[in-house]
Design goal:
heterodimer, A: Rossmann fold, 2 domains, B: mainly alpha, two-stranded antiparallel sheet, 16 helices, 75% helix
Chain lengths: 271, 354
């Protein structure tokens, strides 16, 4: 796929729940290798947009093409085979499983053993397969620095660690496009910096295209290549971070007047 | 020096992923498990028929309870029709062995597979409905199958029941408690090892994922409908095997044995043993099978020569069983398998508390 072919093309999406119009005429394109952020006030439709891409919601109108293939109507579990992975805003780990098993679930669509070969573990090659995937998973564990908790039960971990495990699980899918829904919500500065570094590494070293929803403008403006702003389900501006910060409409709707002076002072420290 | 080191370990250290993925967590656990199976092999030589009968009961009920634990404990669904599948396995194995030349040795797994097929069909609603609604749907399957058993004379012998041939291997009939014990032991070991393996491989993890967070399971590429229905299928397979063993052990299968009460008892077994634990199914079954016997023994001790008291105690016994279960749920809601884990931890960490 060439650089100028979009990896994801969202065209004129319309999504409503009864009388509530969650998304209206939203269109955007994400190119391979980008970090694309979606920002906007609460209830603007950011998560709804991600849900349309990952398959939780089916929009009433519009088209979503991933790798030039229309994915509207496709079930969420089939989309991950195409290469779409995601994390959730509210933690959605498998709370009674160990961290390791949580991440192994991410390998589900890449594995072949089943309810017949699985029970015959030693004789059917299931063990060999499990072992091979365990190695892959350990690479991800090393990368996200969660080796010390790999045998902990996910539900017992702290918030920051759970967020990281969720990211690990999404990375284990080996997606081409990873959707991150507020990866830094509720984290302290140090955890945020770590998370920002992981996202940059995922993008640059692992070659994943990232779509991110985030409220921390320092992070968004620092690590995104392009930003889209939603307000009341409408796209009000898409462009480079600097362009978005300058946009009057965005200031009124979300950032607040006088925001850019503030962020420019701060961005020096955060980076 | 080296040997002293190898004997005095302060923990388990693994240097390969392979060593970290064994079915038993530690070498000691493996030795204990293999040792206890070897010990059980000697049981028929020393124990009398009464104890063997109890152990055989624990065996076939345990297999069925593990099946129920896969659907209830691991996949987080509910089934009130497990006894019907248990019965279907018993009737199917009896019917196949009576009506074809196939020896009982093969009819038991065949009965398991046929029960699984029926379980997959009955499980279809599980793809759509959850919770109490699913409970009612499975209740319907319980009654439909029970009614079928009562009416399908050609299959079950109707109200008069069906005869089941004894288990035979190489023309050697195993109808005594001593010999059938080995058959049940073989099936228990195979089915429990298979169950443990299933739960640590791809599809087992998918079941737990569906239970813990079905929305994110779906995003992780797990087909919810497939796994919800499949868990019913696998659970029925276990029920079918357990039922077939039951049938060939008693030599006679009758419809009265597979009522809703037995379904509830299976549920009690997995809840008491520990939802979502392979060994828990066995612990719960041991508890449920032995509790009445222990109570009976208590009654015998207290009032063996007083008829009025014995009668009163019979009622108290029934109530005491209920009370024991309630107390259990209050003080050990995670089941016996959780208690077992705590004991192991205590042992591992002694003399420290954590």
């Amino acid at each position: 796929m060439t650089k100028n072919q979009p990896l994801l093309k969202v065209d004129n999406i319309f999504l409503s729940f009864g009388g509530v119009h969650a998304l209206r005429e939203v269109s955007f394109e994400v190119y391979p290798g980008e970090v694309f952020s979606i920002i906007g006030p609460n209830g603007a439709g950011k998560t709804s947009m991600l849900n349309c891409v990952s398959g939780r919601y089916q929009p009433q109108k519009g088209e979503i093409a991933f790798k030039e293939k229309n994915i509207i109507g496709m079930k969420p579990n089939d989309r991950c085979k195409l290469g779409i992975g995601r994390t959730f805003q509210n933690l959605a780990l498998f709370n009674h499983m160990t961290v390791l098993d949580n991440i192994m679930v991410g390998r589900h669509h890449l594995m072949k053993n089943n309810f017949i070969t699985g029970p015959l573990y030693w004789f059917s090659g299931a063990r060999k397969e499990e072992l091979a995937h365990r190695r892959e998973v350990e690479d991800i564990i090393d990368f996200l620095e969660i080796a010390h908790i790999r045998k902990s039960i996910a539900g017992t971990l702290s918030y920051g660690l759970r967020k990281r495990v969720e990211l690990a699980r999404a990375v284990a899918l080996r997606p081409d496009l990873i959707l991150l829904d507020e990866p830094m919500a509720g984290m302290n500065l140090e955890e945020k910096e770590d998370m920002a570094r992981y996202i940059i590494d995922l993008n640059e070293e692992w070659g994943m295209t990232v779509i991110m929803i985030e409220h921390d403008m320092g992070v968004v403006m620092d690590i995104s290549h392009r930003v889209m702003v939603l307000d009341f389900g409408r796209e009000i501006c898409t462009g480079l971070p600097e362009e978005v910060m300058e946009n009057e409409q965005v200031k009124t709707a979300y950032l607040g007047v006088g925001f850019d002076d503030d962020i420019q002072e701060k961005s020096g420290e955060v980076a | 020096m080296a040997s002293a080191h190898s004997r005095m370990r302060c923990g388990e250290f693994r240097t390969t992923y392979q060593a970290d993925m064994t079915i038993f967590p530690t070498p000691l656990a493996r030795r204990v498990a293999i040792g206890s199976v070897l010990l059980l092999l000697l049981a028929p030589l020393v124990l009398n028929a009464y104890y063997l009968n109890l152990m055989i009961q624990i065996g076939y009920y345990g297999i069925a309870a593990l099946g129920l634990n896969i659907v209830v404990g691991f996949t987080g669904q509910i089934s009130l029709g497990h006894a019907a599948f248990f019965g279907l396995g018993a009737f199917t194995s009896a019917w196949i062995s009576n009506n074809s030349g196939i020896p009982v040795f093969f009819t038991i797994p065949l009965a398991g597979m046929l029960t699984m097929a029926v379980g997959l069909i009955v499980g279809i609603p599980a793809g759509r409905i959850k919770g109490l609604y699913l409970a009612i749907a499975t209740l319907a399957s319980q009654y439909i199958l029970e009614d079928f058993f009562a009416r399908a004379d050609w299959f079950t012998g109707g109200s008069s029941g069906a005869m089941a041939k004894p288990f035979s291997i190489f023309g050697h009939e195993m109808y005594t408690d001593q010999s059938f014990f080995y058959v049940v032991l073989f099936y228990v070991v195979v089915m429990f090892v298979a169950g443990a393996n299933l739960m640590r491989s791809r599809d087992g993890r998918a079941f737990i994922a569906v239970r813990d967070h079905y929305l994110s399971a779906e995003i992780m590429g797990i087909n919810l409908n497939k796994y919800r229905i499949l868990s019913f299928g696998i659970s029925s397979f276990y029920a079918g095997i357990g039922g077939a063993l039951f049938g060939h052990y008693l030599g006679f299968v009758s419809v009265e044995g597979f009522t809703l009460v037995l379904s509830i008892q299976f549920l009690a077994m997995v809840i008491i043993g520990g939802l979502g634990s392979v060994m828990g199914a066995m612990f719960g079954t041991v508890f449920m099978v032995l509790l009445p016997e222990v109570m009976e023994f208590g009654v015998y001790l207290v009032g063996s020569d007083n008829t009025a008291l014995t009668q009163a105690l019979a009622y108290i016994k029934e109530m005491a069983i209920g009370l024991a279960i309630i107390l259990f749920l209050i003080f050990e809601p995670d089941g016996l398998s959780h208690r077992w884990k705590m004991i192991k931890n205590y042992w591992k960490l002694y003399p420290f508390s954590y």
